[in-house]
Amino acid sequence: MRLKISLLKEPKHQELVSCVGWTTAEELYSCSDDHQIVKWNLLTSETSQIVKLPDDIYPIDLHWFPKSLGVKKQTQAESFVLTSSDGKFHLISKLGRVEKSVEAHCGAVLAGRWNYEGTALVTVGEDGQIKIWSKTGMLRSTLAQQGTPVYSVAWGPDSEKVLYTAGKQLIIKPLQPNAKVLQWKAHDGIILKVDWNSVNDLILSAGEDCKYKVWDSYGRPLYSSQPHEHPITSVAWAPDGELFAVGSFHTLRLCDKTGWSYALEKPNTGSVFNIAWSIDGTQIAGACGNRHVVFAHVVEQRWEWKNFQVTLTKRRTMQVRNVLNDAVDLLEFRDRVIKASLNYAHLVVSTSLQCYVFSTKNWNTPLIFDLKEGTVSLILQAERHFLLVDGGGIYLYSYEGRFISSPKFPGMRTDILNAQTVSLSNDTIAIKDKADEKIIFLFEASTGKPLGDGKLLSHKNEILEIALDQKGLTNDRKIAFIDKNRDLYITSVKRFGKEEQIVKLGTMVHTLAWNDTCNILCGLQDTRFTVWYYPNTVYVDRDILPKTLHERDASEFSKNPHIVSFVRNQVTIRRADGSLIHISISPYPAILHEYVSSSKWEDAVRLCRFVKEQTMWACLAAMAVANRDMTTAEIAYAAIGEIDKVQYINSIKDLPSKESKMAHILMFSGNIQEAEMVLLQAGLVYQAIQININLYNWERALELAVKYKTHVDTVLAYRQKFLETFGKQETNKRYLQYAEGLLIDWEKIKAKIEMEITKERERSSSSQPSKNFGLKH
């Protein structure tokens, strides 16, 4: 990826350009010390003077009023705030009319920023004050004041906090009075510029120490650049939070959100005082000290999938290379390319007005349809369909271009969604809420309606990243997520009535990805790269989960690596310095998944015998129990030396009825309540009581016996025997109450138990004459 620079031969301004701002993706306003505001039209390459300001107004900063969120059609920004050296800020219309000038600070107003909703404006000045104003320019409050000038300011993603500079310090101050203020030393020189992105929640800072830095919203350092030759005068996030631009003397740099640099350009600009990204995130404009306005296009983005590599060579041209036969195809577009995604044998490209869907089998005939909004900020793909996110909403389309659904929820803000907060599978869409970060919304892909009974997935901590598995049945769909403590959890997305269990899979997990062909999960855990070959094991047999993992040392990936993709048996990881590393994992677990999904149990056993690996046998054991195939489970458990489990499976085989077998298989997986329910529904009350006695659930055993008026004496007898073994006296009031005046007759109890077992056998043989469950003729 690099920047394609365009600079006019002759400047349009007479003095240094102090600030720039985009109204649409093709129109820019620039302000200069020559008191002129100039409009640039990039389609026609024309410039026109909008207004000449009074001679005492030297503009310093400009920010366009934000477009209202959720508006269907792309409306243009209609007015902007301009701060100036005379201590005022001016609200100016698009046509150049000064609507209002407000006395704001003593000395120059160094920066002014609208919040994301457009309901408030923050200004900072040489007098060290930070002031909050209403939309119409009425003073609401003075948020803070200090003895040093405040050079730059930015709103937090929720518009509830403000980030500002104080010499070498950065300060985050919430708008609520008495709320905790966060302050830290960020640079060794005065900080000149800050920016805070609403999508990734990361902070950028630039200073006179010639460095730019990336921080998280808690003030923890994520990246610090090497010192440049000159102070860094400007930094700005791209709208989607994936890239940022850095400006210095004769320098423009394009960087990834993790800090490493994609491209360094050395245009003849003087110092770049201000950088603005276009609304669609495809180009930047810089306000230059030598009277120029510099424009730079982001080109040569790359997308890879299996043997295909797609490169954006120009604004409207892509090159597709098949690395197997070196065949090259050129794709031409009518408008400039904004976003693209290559996965599941399809390339989806959104331009400013249309969406193109290419199949990797045929690059010549794309499917084209018009877009509702225009600026697509995110494309996600699944095997059957893809998702587009723009300013107006979330839209799901099939690869044939058919609109499928558009999920919605109260307070939805599509402008802050990214690949970590939205996930798509063949039947489910998951979206992490921004208002309450502990909640995940789940939708049916086909209808866009909430999944199941409409219950939300709620967690005890804030969730950072979510990912749906891609294969298998809808009822078995799982979602994995990482929370604020960097713990990895997994849970089922089907939520009917009963609260689904959220199970912890790992700790200190920084990044994760599901495989595209089977439900294998990989993640980077602290200093280890971990692959969960069968994550479902946590629901089947927790004890053998460690045996189903593959782990290797991850110290070679350095700090903060990120998993880019997990296709077939290859994992692609991007290191903090931007380099890509490819890791191959064993292909056998994927083949095992395939056999099991087709119920080819004999083939699965044969594969495990061929590979001779404990992880394979452990996966097969869990898969067999999950699919109720106890014969295969017995072989697999024997292979990994779990003798107690083999014996238990053998005892299950000898049970008289299928309900009892099912209940004991559920108990094997730890689902005690479900096992009890199966027995009670089948009328096997004694067996339900017996499993509670075996598990020493004394309270529940007595409760069932009393409720169904049967075997109360059996429960009391076993309880007495249990207490005698340990030499204890009965203290439970309920047991004392029912034991009063009751004599335990073991002969009678044994006869009753025998009768129950005989009854179960008879019932089983009469309902299933062709199959004799454990009965020998």
Question: How would you describe this structure to a colleague?
Answer:
- By secondary structure, this protein is α+β, with helices and mostly antiparallel strands.
- It contains 13 helices and 55 strands.
- The strands form 14 sheets. A four-stranded antiparallel sheet has the order 1-28-27-26, with no helix packed on it. The protein has a four-stranded antiparallel sheet with strand order 2-3-4-5, with no helix packed on it. The chain has a four-stranded antiparallel sheet with strand order 6-7-8-9, with no helix packed on it.
- A hairpin with a 4-residue loop joins strand 31 and strand 32 (about 325-330).
- Helix 5 (about 630-640) runs antiparallel to helix 6, helix 6 runs antiparallel to helix 7 and helix 10 (about 700-705) runs antiparallel to helix 11 (about 710-725).
- The longest helix has 22 residues, at about 745-765.
- Residues about 70-75 and about 770-775 have low confidence and may be disordered.
Key features?
777 residues, alpha+beta, four-stranded antiparallel sheet, 18% helix, disordered C terminus, WD repeat, cilium, WD40_rpt, cell projection, WD40/YVTN_repeat-like_dom_sf
Give the topology, please.
Blueprint lengths: L1 E5 L10 E8 L2 E6 L3 E6 L4 E7 L6 E6 L14 E6 L3 E6 L4 E6 L5 E6 L5 E6 L3 E6 L4 E7 L7 E3 L5 E6 L2 E6 L7 E4 L5 E6 L5 E6 L4 E5 L4 E4 L9 E4 L5 E6 L2 E6 L4 E5 L6 E6 L5 E6 L4 E7 L2 E4 L2 E7 L2 E6 L4 E6 L4 E7 L2 E6 L2 E6 L2 E9 L5 E6 L3 E6 L2 E6 L4 E3 L16 E3 L3 E5 L6 E6 L12 E2 L4 E6 L9 E6 L4 E5 L10 E4 L2 E6 L6 E5 L2 E5 L4 H4 L8 E5 L8 E6 L2 E5 L5 E5 L3 H10 L3 H11 L2 H13 L3 H10 L3 H11 L4 H11 L3 H10 L3 H10 L3 H10 L4 H14 L7 H7 L6 H22 L10
Antiparallel strand pairs: 1-28, 2-3, 3-4, 4-5, 6-7, 7-8, 8-9, 10-11, 11-12, 12-13, 14-15, 15-16, 16-17, 18-19, 19-20, 20-21, 22-23, 23-24, 24-25, 26-27, 27-28, 29-30, 30-31, 31-32, 33-34, 34-35, 35-36, 37-38, 38-39, 39-40, 41-42, 42-43, 43-44, 45-46, 46-47, 47-48, 49-50, 50-51, 51-52, 53-54, ...
Keywords: Cell projection, Cilium, WD repeat
Protein name: Intraflagellar transport protein 80 homolog isoform X2
InterPro entries: Beta-prop_IFT80_2nd, TPR_IFT80_172_dom, WD40/YVTN_repeat-like_dom_sf, WD40_repeat_dom_sf, WD40_rpt
